[in-house]
Amino acid sequence: MRHLMSPMDFSVEELDALMDLAVDIEKEPAKYAHKCDGRILATCFYEPSTRTRLSFESAMLRLGGKVLGFATADSSSAAKGESVSDTIRIISSYADICAMRHPKEGAPMVAASKSWIPVINAGDGGHQHPTQTLTDLMTIRSLKGSLSDMTIGLCGDLKFGRTVHSLINALCRYENVKFVFISPPELRIPDYIREDVLIKNNIEFKEVIKLDDVMPELDILYMTRVQRERFFNEEDYVRLKDFYILNKEKMALAKKDMMVLHPLPRVNEISVEVDDDERAMYFKQVRYGMYIRMALILTLLDLAS
Ligand code: CP
């Protein structure tokens, strides 16, 4: 039995196979429409979600399976004090696979250690969000043709942004990928990413504060939201929340084929006027997320072939 806690749980070859499967599912959905007949996915979400939970549910339904679960901690027995370890033992009797989101870093890992079914980390605090990374890799590969030879700018909350942490880990394994980290000083990437991932693997990167200065050199701009829920005080959040706003003027500085991605939800960091720019790919990105989650469910349930 296999779980997914981090994008590093899959080798580059396995990620390629997963993305190839997702491409085939998109091309020939009828071939996969009954692959999960009789199987059940549990979505256990202790933190709010639109995309991740609903794309997992849509993925399982499109594969012929069924879904059950809870969308808030308050509507589960966590509100009565039940531990994640106990809850997953219960879910293991009801479902065949579980996607879990939790505000505490490592909670899905604890669940996996007690589970009798595959557990997928659907986002744990400010730590990792591996299925968003699968979505991002699939989007980049599909739209750029490759995951190598590019300069990617990551902008916004790089300290608490779990999508950013997972994506850096994953992209470090591809050839000639350079990073530009754009953030206010308070929201820089954590030391463990800078030292244990980037420096250790000799990855080229720089950290800057101003977005305008680096726009012309980027092949991809990955915008992120400043996350109110991760701040310890409201004052800091209010001071930093509109630090970056991507608008038409900034887009005019970018390459003609630069691609704008965002894990979403978006608040103010991308002006709605950018939505009509042909380089804005964040709504397309969402659809890739569903196909890659279909491929992931099939793979973890050993139903891919
Ligand atoms: N990208 C993402 O995780 O969105 P949700 O929080 O809506 O699931």
Describe what this molecule looks like in 3D.
This protein has 305 residues and is an alpha/beta fold. It folds into two domains: 7-128 and 289-300, 3-Layer(aba) Sandwich (Rossmann fold), CATH 3.40.50.1370; 130-285, 3-Layer(aba) Sandwich (Rossmann fold), CATH 3.40.50.1370. It is built from eleven helices and nine strands. The strands form two sheets. A five-stranded parallel β-sheet has the order 7-6-5-8-9, covered by helices on one side. Strand 5, helix 6 (162-171) and strand 6 (177-182) form a beta-alpha-beta unit. Helix 5 (130-144) packs across helix 6 and helix 5 (130-144) crosses helix 11. The two termini are 16 Å apart. The mean pLDDT is 96. Bound molecules: phosphoric acid mono(formamide)ester. Residues 49-52, 123, 132, 263-265 line the site of phosphoric acid mono(formamide)ester (CP).
Average pLDDT across residues? 96
- The proportion of strand residues reads 15-25%
Indicate the radius of gyration in whole angstroms: 19 Å
Largest sheet: 5 strands, parallel
Number of helices: 11
- Into how many domains do the coordinates divide? 2
What structural class results from the helix and strand content? Answer: alpha/beta
- What would you call the shape? globular
Which ions and ligands are bound to the chains? phosphoric acid mono(formamide)ester
Tell me the CATH topology of the largest domain. Answer: Rossmann fold
Can you tag this structure with a few keywords?
305 residues, alpha/beta, Rossmann fold, 2 domains, 5-stranded parallel sheet, 4-stranded parallel sheet, 11 helices, globular, binds phosphoric acid mono(formamide)ester
